[in-house]
Design goal:
Elements (H helix, E strand, L loop, with lengths): L10 E7 L2 H9 L7 E7 L6 E5 L2 E5 L1 H4 L2 E3 L1
Antiparallel strand pairs: 1-2, 1-5, 2-3, 3-4
Length: about 70
Amino acid sequence: MKLSQLAIGQQGIIKEFTDLEMSVKLMEMGCLPGELVKVERVAPFGDPIAVSVSGYQLSLRKKEASTIELI
């Protein structure tokens, strides 16, 4: 399952990334494999989404969130 497929309140554990270039940026922001990530909010038209990861909130576009595979 991908992070972009979760609904508000759902959570998962980061397994891996499907885009190497994007993965470097995401890991710099605290999205590391093994981290728990939870969807907190979704914008009215579905993009971007706000997620909790590593103790803070992070806003991601759906395209970015779709590169994060969850366990």
